[in-house]
Design goal:
The chain has about 375 residues and is α/β, with parallel strands linked by helices. The protein is built from 13 helices and 13 strands. It has helices at about 5, 15-25, 45-50, 65-80, 95-105, 120-130, 165-180, 205, 240-250, 255-265, 270-295, 315-325, 350-360; strands spanning about 30, 90-95, 115, 135-140, 150-155, 180-185, 215-220, 230-235, 295-300, 305-310, 325-330, 330, 345. α8 (about 205) links the parallel β6 (about 180-185) and β7. α5 runs parallel beside α6. The N and C termini lie far apart (about 50 Å).
């Protein structure tokens, strides 16, 4: 079987008809289906990118010392994660490629289990299937079964915006360690908290004071509007990071040098992150009550970029209802079978487009 045949259909392809319908609205489409940033890249990051645009040599896979030190500093300032070893920091080409290839990079394959949340970012499953491993969806609090090689955690969650407590995360880490599994925590939305305070898996109250067997995966796409730069990193267990580094050096998985400079600048400045968070908070403040006024219930959504919403009907019926009003959203079925009565509504649209969505919901 070819690799492609092991993979599910790309979810967003199935939205094509609804997207076409939404685009016929006289006021144009309001696309809230994908969490792609729309706000400008801060000048300090663009200047850093340009500052090394005339370096013709190959970049290092491990990243510059300045970048790795910037990661260590940002994790301490922003998330209270102290004592990280700069050597245990590895830049990645965005976080999606790391998510997709982590099972393979860890040497997992047929006969191994990759445990993912019941509602999950689709690439967790894709990564398992690329490696030939078996993805298993776990309910909240359900321990990983024997034979599990990797457990994915995600708080704040994509798609639900749910925040897990430090105690719940600590139990998940303990359960994974009990079966010898690596824990990978997708923390891409950690900077975007609204009504709950998420914590990193590398905090001592979660990890037990040791990073052994634990990785934290981060992205600058959301917090710094760098989706176009493909800028992320992984950190945690020094031995695991060293192993990932060796494989990535052979495979040419290298973040371009200008992007490394841009990342170092972004990770060294917290003001632009706070400003971006405020933009999303303002959009959430108008979109959430408009959804509720239109008869939606918004569940979880304590953090992150999405409103996990339901009208008490099939997710695809809700997608169609919104497309008739020129608003495109993602059905919850993209994220797992238990999402069949919810839709994921993104906050990643301009203020003008969010206002247009509000007008259509309340008309």
């Amino acid at each position: 079987m070819t690799t492609g045949r092991r993979l599910p259909d790309f979810p967003w392809d199935s939205l094509a008809d609804h997207a076409a319908k939404a685009r016929t609205h006289p006021g144009g489409v309001v696309d809230l289906s994908i969490g792609t940033p729309v706000d400008p890249v801060p000048d300090l990051i663009r200047d850093a990118l340009a500052s090394v645009s005339d370096e013709p040599g190959y970049p290092t896979t491990h990243g510059t010392p300045a970048l790795r030190e910037a990661v260590v500093g940002s994790m301490a300032r922003r998330y209270g994660v102290d004592g990280l070893d700069p050597a245990a920091v590895l830049p990645t080409i965005g976080s999606k490629e790391l998510v997709a290839w982590l099972p393979t990079l860890l040497g997992l394959g047929p006969g191994d289990v990759v445990a993912i949340p019941a509602l999950a970012y689709p690439t967790y499953e894709v990564g398992a299937r690329l490696a030939g491993a078996t993805p298993v969806r776990l309910a909240d609090g359900e321990p990983a079964p024997a034979g599990t090689g990797l457990v994915w955690l995600n708080s704040p969650s994509n798609p639900t915006g749910r925040v897990q407590s430090a105690a719940a995360l600590a139990q998940a880490v303990a359960d994974a360690r009990a079966v010898g599994a690596v824990v990978a925590s997708d923390e891409c939305y950690l900077a975007l908290s609204w009504t709950a305070s998420p914590v990193s898996v590398l905090r001592p109250e979660v990890s037990g004071g040791s990073p052994d067997g634990v990785l934290a995966v981060h992205s600058l796409s959301k917090s710094s509007s760098l989706a176009g730069y493909r800028a992320g990193f992984v950190t945690g267990d020094p031995a695991l990071v060293a192993s990932l580094l060796e494989v990535r050096k052979h495979a040419g998985m290298i973040v371009p040098r200008p992007v490394q400079a841009a990342m170092a600048a972004a990770l060294s400045d917290d003001a632009h992150v706070a400003a971006q968070r405020s933009r999303y908070e303002a959009r959430r403040a108008v979109l959430l009550p408009a959804l509720e006024a239109a008869g939606f219930t918004v569940d979880h959504s304590e953090a992150g970029l999405y409103l996990w919403s339901t009208r008490g009907e099939s997710a695809w019926d809700t997608v169609a209802w919104l497309a008739d009003r020129g608003v495109l959203v993602a059905p919850g079925t993209f994220y797992g079978p238990t999402g069949d009565r919810h839709v994921r509504i993104a906050l990643t649209a301009s203020d003008e487009r969010v206002a247009a969505a509000v007008d259509r919901l309340t008309a």
